[in-house]
Specification:
The protein is built from nine helices and seven strands, in the order βαβαβαβαβαβααβαα. By secondary structure, the chain is an alpha/beta fold. α4 links the parallel β4 and β5. It is globular and about 60 Å long. The structure holds NADP nicotinamide-adenine-dinucleotide phosphate.
Length: 261
């Protein structure tokens, strides 16, 4: 769905993308710009945000906002900043990261950071911006993960955060179905910055990898269909099907073997 021609007085509709400094966030920026939206691009890393701007056709149209959304004070200031934009029609809760390794051995502040960034922040940001999105008949896209469909030994806090995000997003989607379109996007592995940040060894999950472009295309197609739960592409659908038919005990054994270091 493309945005129609704007009148001289009306400000072009605006979409906020969190975690726009790379990976899926950068791809969302590209595809939403093609649809005619102005963008609020959020991230932390300034040089990487500049790379996102360079990947866009009209970089001067958009604005970058920097904040660590795992820190409450920074998140609150960020939300206040975004609230001033009356023309906000879309929110893409995309920022997130995972930490690979045994729960007991990985630093607790990093693991708390996963829960805060991947679960607490999107819930908080969405709650604050929903009145505006409802008024503008807008949309929310929550970038969750297939990691939220199975408990993952050695990525336990990431799986917990994404399970929470998916369940919250799905329940909220039904509550506001007629006012705001909500997509819960649950991709499997994709070659972005995610693996480097998590510390996961090369090769894990590589047979199921899909490109960011396809994942974002499928997420936006789901939005065009009025919202819903979206597992993008054939490979990730196959992985999801396998998750659904495997008994939990067996899945835990397989995942422990797969992710163990
Ligand atoms: N790639 C995969 O295999 C995969 C699969 C399923 C789901 N996902 C999900 O997809 C989303 C995007 O990840 P990606 O794969 O595109 O990885 P990525 O390239 O590492 O991008 C992650 C983005 O999140 C931002 N971010 C992380 N922590 C943040 C914080 N505390 N405050 C503000 N921004 C923060 C990063 O910002 P800075 O770089 O500026 O710090 C970056 O823009 C995540 O939610 C991830 O869980 C990824």
């Amino acid at each position: 769905m493309k945005v129609g021609k704007q009148t001289a007085k009306k400000k072009p509709p605006l979409v906020l993308i969190t975690g726009a400094s790379g990976g899926f966030g950068c791809e969302f920026a590209r595809q939403l710009e093609q649809r005619g939206y102005r963008l609020l691009l959020h991230g932390r890393d300034k040089p990487r945000m500049q790379m996102t701007l360079h990947a866009l056709k009209y970089p001067k149209r958009h604005r970058c906002i920097y904040a660590d959304i795992s820190i409450e004070a920074e998140r609150t200031a960020f939300i206040e900043d975004v609230k001033q934009y009356g023309e906000l029609v879309g929110l893409v809760n995309n920022a997130g990261f995972g930490i690979w390794g045994a729960f007991e051995r990985r630093e607790i502040n990093l693991q708390m950071g996963v829960l805060l960034t991947d679960l607490v922040a999107p819930v908080d940001i969405t709650h604050a911006l929903l009145p505006r999105l409802r008024k503008n008949k807008g949309f929310v896209i929550n970038v969750s993960s297939l990691a939220g469909e199975t408990p993952l030994p050695y990525m336990s806090t990431y799986a917990a955060a994404k399970a929470g995000l998916t369940w919250w997003s799905e329940a909220m989607r039904v509550e506001i179905a007629h006012e705001v379109r909500v997509v819960t996007l649950a991709p499997g592995p994709s070659p972005t910055g995610f693996r480097d940040v998590s510390g996961m060894p090369e090769g894990t999950g590589s047979a199921f990898r899909s490109r960011a472009r396809l994942i974002v295309e499928q997420g936006l197609k789901q939005l065009d269909a009025g919202g819903g739960f979206c597992v993008p592409g054939k490979r990730h659908k196959l992985l999801y099907f396998m998750q659904k038919i495997t008994p939990r005990r067996l899945a835990l054994l397989l995942m422990r073997r797969y992710f163990r270091h």
